[in-house]
Amino acid sequence: MLNKKTVDDLKDLKGKRVLVRCDFNVPLKEGAITDDTRITAALPTIQKLIGEGAKVILCSHLGKVKNGPNEGESLAPVAERLSEKLGKPVVFVSDYNVTGEAATSAVAAMQEGDVVLLQNTRFRGSEETKNGEQFSKELADLADDYVCDAFGSSHRAHASVEGVTKFISAKGGSNAVGYLMQKEIDFLGNAVENPVRPFVAILGGAKVADKLNVISNLLEKCDTLIIGGGMAFTFLKAQGMGVGNSLVDDTKLDYCREMIEKAEKLGKKLLLPVDAAVASAFPNPIDGPVDVTVVPASEIPDDKMGLDIGPETAKLFADAAKSAKTVVWNGPMGVFENPTLAAGTIAVARALAETEATTIIGGGDSAAAVNQLGFADKMSHISTGGGASLEFLEGKALPGVMAADDK
Fold it and tell me: Catalytic site residue 207?
């Protein structure tokens, strides 16, 4: 099991400058934050450092920043919301250079317990995303110690995630993980490496290609693997069933057959849909009205497409989840954004909410589904990283986790 230095291992923080990489990649609509879950999730680490008298310097990316720095992707709204939540001023360095003179001056003026937020790290373009040495060094120059609390970015070897740690180490500082990162490592890491059994993994979502390595890795670790969502139709077709116009990745049929064989060889249960909710076309708009019929999975008409698991499958999957001691779920069972096609995802979410098992939701659409459907408080852990949690479940080493000092 990974044993990394945490924010609790940082000693004598009074007056020390601590750079914290947060995940403030929040959704914005016309400059207003529509969901501040990620800001709230960062609070425990920030408050701990303030309480110890550290000078807290925060950095994060926001959006994809395709066309260079712009006000629409500035972290200004985050500074405002964070200030409200902390109940104290957050000094925002609006300079698009991120680590320039404005940042240096703001940090130099800090008192113990002060908080400064730097501008969007992606405004430095490829210097951030290609892990540029100069930008990494400039970030490290602002601080004595570094804390990574951005699990959602930890699968990327960026300057503010990984590069900065080398320069902090070079001057004798410490690199630790924050409370949010630690929770992710504990839940996702333990679930995969040391689960309480029976261990059931549920995978959904549209594409098999996105989950190739996850399927293979989880088959080795879990007792039962459940496959729903759009990618189930590629598995059904691989077994020789007609799937109508359903989403299928024909290049992955052999892979699906290999996984079915692998499950048999390892003595693992692999559950696939036994019925499906089908319609003539994908709903347009996505949440618009749609006429649905339920058919056996082996009898999908040629002119129909499967858009959700059917009630028999929902019961099959729910029963398997309820018999588990550990459940990991990544990816919805159907087009859950549509009320008519959300039944399968709701059934799985409800089964997880009612079980005594440790339930881990692997970020992305599953997290959105659980939040939207009102089951969030019933889950043991909802991962904050979509891509990062998938890579963790694949068994990959994440740069942002590995860069932290070992205890």
Answer: yes
| Res. 239: pLDDT tops 80 | yes
| Averaged confidence pLDDT in the chain | 94
Rounded CA gap, 359 and 110, in Å? 42
Confirm whether 38 is a catalytic residue.
yes
pTM: 0.86
64 as an active site residue: the answer is no
Q: Residue for token digits 């990494």?
A: 136
What does the pLDDT read at residue 153? 94
What is the per-residue pLDDT for 91? 98
Per the omega criterion (within 30 degrees of 0), is the bond before 273 cis?
no
Strands (E) in 333-375, as ranges, are: 358-361
Q: Which CATH superfamily is 7-183 part of?
A: Phosphoglycerate kinase, N-terminal domain (3.40.50.1260)
Whether the domain at 7-183 and the domain at 195-393 fall into the same CATH topology: yes
Catalytic residue among 38, 48, 122, 252: 38
| CATH T-level assignment (fold) for domain 195-393 | Rossmann fold (3.40.50)
Give the domain ranges of the chain: 7-183, 195-393
H helical segments located in 267-361: 311-322, 343-354
Encode pLDDT of 292-311 as tens digits. Answer: 999 999 999 999 999 999 99
Q: For the sheet containing 175-177, what is the strand order? A: 90-92, 115-117, 55-59, 17-21, 145-148, 175-177
